[in-house]
Amino acid sequence: GPRAAASAPAALACLSHNDARVRRVAVEALGGMGEGTTTSGVEVALLRMLQEDADPRVRHAAAEALGRLGPPGLAAAAGLLASGDAEPRGLAAVALAAGGARSAQYAEVLTVWMVTEDSPLRLAAAQALGAIGEAAAPISAAALAIRLREDADEHVREAAAVALGQLGKAAAGHLEAIVSALDDANPFVQQAAAAALERVSEADAL
Hints:
One of its GO terms (molecular function) is oxidoreductase activity. The chain is an all-alpha fold and 206 residues long. It is built from twelve helices and no strands.
């Protein structure tokens, strides 16, 4: 938490270590300081790690760490949503997912991705929208339901089902799509749809 901010200089120094495991631990420590950390340069350092580190696990950890820093970290990551490269955009979505409901202001961009982007970014968008939860619902529920019914990628369909479950009551208007997915050709989509149906039905009954 914020009390760990005193260790930030040591963690920042470890970001240049030769061992990727050390760099990843340092990145996770910086993210663990959470919202409210006042240590200068943390967001910039994590953004650099997200974009430049040679190890994909470190880049992913840096994205999650940015999301846990609250609005400053989320804003830094969101600057990559319009990147010309797919990987930074996907990692920006990872950061927004880590931010949860605090990322609600970016739900519209992620919802557009559900229509316009290739399957890896559609998958990242669905996962982020689910993590944002009800705060994303006014604009995202319908797009997720369409992806659940129509997407050619089974991983996107599964993520859309999970996300609809995470939207809870806000997805109650899309039960038909969830029920239809119980007969999906992929068993993982079926399982995700069954779990989503239970979550949405329970939330709608409250």
